[in-house]
Specification:
Length: about 375
């Protein structure tokens, strides 16, 4: 490698390391070398990097080797990630990991020949004047456009993934956290694996608001303007509530359960489970629709009997997301079967060893047989 290229590579490694808040000692540990002085020499362009070192560095810095070798002014480094709750620690590492997964996801779309689904819609709004009525209007519009029906939570994640190519990835995040971004790889959402399914549904709807308004309300503008950020988050919450709990459908469910102008706790909880949202989200939606008053909502939320009944129904509705997104695994499997992906690279993407590839694919209902039969469509 030419001296200038070695220097540029060293600068890029230093830039990536600093963005992840890693010290030279941290990176030396990842690389498996004894001294941070070696990292210093690499970053100053004073030492050639061996192939195995390059592979280890790329993994530690959450980029592919090819991306690591790109010129220093490559703009993928500047991709903004909009957090709902910023992680208390490791923000840079989590963002880098998330963005790498997104780029791998997009690569699998290309290698599988499937390509990206339909273009993701953008809605034009004014971040300075948008209000709760706008949130309601947007929610109704999106529910119809995305064909989510009267129970949007039941199909929202699958619709985002399969119809619009949203890259959904799960990680162990701080409580209540989620994130969204749109890059060259398309729209993407990072979800908290540890949260309850109904909380994840609400987060999906919340992050969807940010995705459909990404061009109108730039992430960097929000990050640099706390008052605007606080207001937009309230609008996003309202959008999520309106999207997941359509007024007409909620009214029908509520009226079917009211007797003598009263409703049982069990029926309120059943409605929340019907729409796959938390009871808290349902209560605040009923408040917004003026179907319950604030005193009633506060009384219910503070009632230990209600909370006990609510917890008793949770286990039946609980499910954990798979280790890897099913669509991602499916695309990687197709790319492998078409001979566009090596088995070693497939194992790396599936986060397993070579001998475990078959078992891992079976876990997702797939196999690793390479079938190249073709159907002659003839002439019309």
């Amino acid at each position: 490698m030419e001296a200038q290229s070695v220097k540029q590579l060293g600068q890029r490694i230093a830039e990536l390391r600093k963005k992840l808040n890693l010290t030279q000692t941290d990176l030396a540990t990842h690389l498996g070398v004894g001294s941070p002085q070696i990292i210093s020499q690499i970053e100053l362009g004073q030492r050639d990097i061996k192939a195995w070192e390059l592979a280890k560095l790329s993994r530690a810095l959450f980029v592919n080797v090819a991306e690591l070798l790109l010129p220093q002014d490559h703009k993928s480094m500047e991709q903004p990630v909009l957090w709902r709750v910023v992680p208390k620690s490791g923000q840079g590492e989590k963002e880098a990991s998330f963005l790498k997964h997104c780029r791998d996801f997009a690569a699998m779309e290309e290698l599988s020949g499937v390509g990206r689904p339909r273009e993701f819609p953008q809605k034009t709004v004014n971040p300075l004047t948008i209000d709760f009525q706008d949130a309601t209007r947007l929610a109704e519009q999106v529910r119809g456009e995305f064909e989510l029906g009267a129970r949007p939570a039941a199909s929202l994640e699958r619709t985002l993934e399969d119809r619009y190519g949203v890259k959904v990835w799960y990680d162990d995040l701080d409580e209540g956290s989620a994130a969204a971004t749109i890059g060259d790889f398309g729209p993407a959402i990072l979800m908290n694996r540890k949260e309850a399914p109904w909380r994840r549904n609400y987060n999906f709807a919340h992050e969807l608001f940010h995705l459909i308004t990404w061009n109108s309300i730039p992430a960097l503008e929000l990050q640099n303007n706390p008052p605007l950020w606080e207001n937009i988050e309230k609008i996003a919450n309202s959008f999520a509530s309106c999207l997941l709990l359509p007024a007409g459908a909620v009214n029908i469910e509520l009226n079917e359960r009211i007797a003598n102008n009263q409703i049982e706790y069990n029926d309120l909880i059943a409605i929340a489970r019907e729409f796959d949202v938390s009871t808290e989200a349902l209560l605040y939606r009923l408040l917004a629709l003026r179907l319950l008053n604030k005193d009633a909502v506060d009384s219910i939320r503070g009632d230990a009997d209600f909370r006990s009944l609510d917890r008793a129904t949770m286990s039946a509705s609980w499910w954990d997301p798979p280790d890897l997104p099913e669509r991602f695994v499916r695309l990687a499997s197709v790319a492998y079967k078409k001979g566009r992906l090596s088995r070693a690279r497939l194992a790396q993407l599936l986060n397993c060893t070579l001998p475990d590839v078959t078992e891992t694919l079976h876990h997702y209902g797939l196999d690793d047989r390479e079938i190249h039969k073709k159907l002659d469509l003839g002439t019309a």
